[in-house]
């Protein structure tokens, strides 16, 4: 019986997210039409995330956001165990550019919107990954932050343990000389697991922002130490939240 209700709940969640996307889509198209307006997708993302999670009864708890200055640019680095992680950054304090896997562009309607406002990357191709990083930095301009999942996808086989981090997020932060912000998402993989036929569980979604890590004056030789520092901060928080 519990499995049956989870199926019904999952269908309801899907309907809510799709209907909201359809209602907001004309506004996304208006924003897409003018690059100068792309930063305003922040408001649509925020509406989508807040209204959708409210309607499906998933409470949210955002911690540490008082450490973030919405007027500054950051590179947000988060663990990545669920597609819900993208929705979570609808609660970011400013407009962000996502770097997501190329398969996202194939999703009807959403894929076009995502590929126009954000950046898709074929992580199997080093050349494509290099170009995607520079494209993301270009899309950031001077007033958008960057969201990257440094594991390079949902790769961990031992969730909530993370996979090894790749260099992209740390290169971006050093190239822009802007702070890195570790972000821990301890619950999304339980709410929306990365399985072939996922069933959604109703649970509080927590999002934990950690203290920004400055990169001013750092160079590419500092990437290994930065990766270790960010990995340990997120990993320790995930362990504490279990």
From TrEMBL:
InterPro entries noted in UniProt: Plipid/glycerol_acylTrfase
Organism superkingdom: Bacteria
Keywords: Acyltransferase, Membrane, Transferase, Transmembrane, Transmembrane helix
Molecular function via GO: 1-acylglycerol-3-phosphate O-acyltransferase activity
GO biological process, one term: phosphatidic acid biosynthetic process
Pathway in which this enzyme or protein is active: Lipid metabolism
Domain Phospholipid/glycerol acyltransferase: start-end pairs: 74-188
Transmembrane feature ranges: 12-33
Entry protein name: 1-acyl-sn-glycerol-3-phosphate acyltransferase
Species assigned in the record: Marivirga sericea
């Amino acid at each position: 019986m519990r499995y049956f209700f989870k199926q019904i709940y999952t269908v309801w969640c899907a309907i809510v997210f799709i209907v909201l996307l359809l209602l907001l889509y004309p506004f996304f198209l208006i924003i897409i039409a003018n690059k100068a307006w792309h930063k305003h997708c922040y408001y649509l993302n925020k509406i989508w995330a807040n209204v959708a999670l409210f309607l499906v009864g998933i409470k949210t708890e955002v911690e540490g956001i008082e450490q973030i200055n919405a007027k500054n640019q950051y590179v947000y680095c988060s663990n990545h165990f669920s597609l819900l992680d993208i929705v979570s950054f609808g609660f970011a304090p400013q407009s962000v550019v996502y770097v997501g896997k190329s398969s996202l562009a194939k999703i009807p309607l959403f894929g076009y919107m995502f590929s126009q406002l954000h950046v898709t990357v074929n992580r199997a191709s080093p050349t494509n990954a290099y170009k995607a990083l520079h494209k993301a930095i270009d899309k950031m301009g001077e007033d958008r932050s960057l969201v990257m999942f440094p594991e390079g996808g949902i790769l961990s086989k031992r969730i909530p343990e993370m996979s090894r981090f790749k260099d992209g997020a740390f290169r971006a932060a050093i190239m822009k000389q802007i702070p890195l912000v570790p972000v821990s998402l301890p619950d999304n993989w339980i709410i929306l697991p990365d399985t072939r036929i996922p069933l959604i569980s109703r649970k509080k979604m927590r999002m934990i922002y950690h203290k920004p890590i400055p990169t001013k004056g750092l160079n590419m030789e500092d990437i290994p130490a930065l990766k270790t520092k960010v990995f340990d901060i997120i990993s320790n928080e995930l362990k504490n939240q279990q």
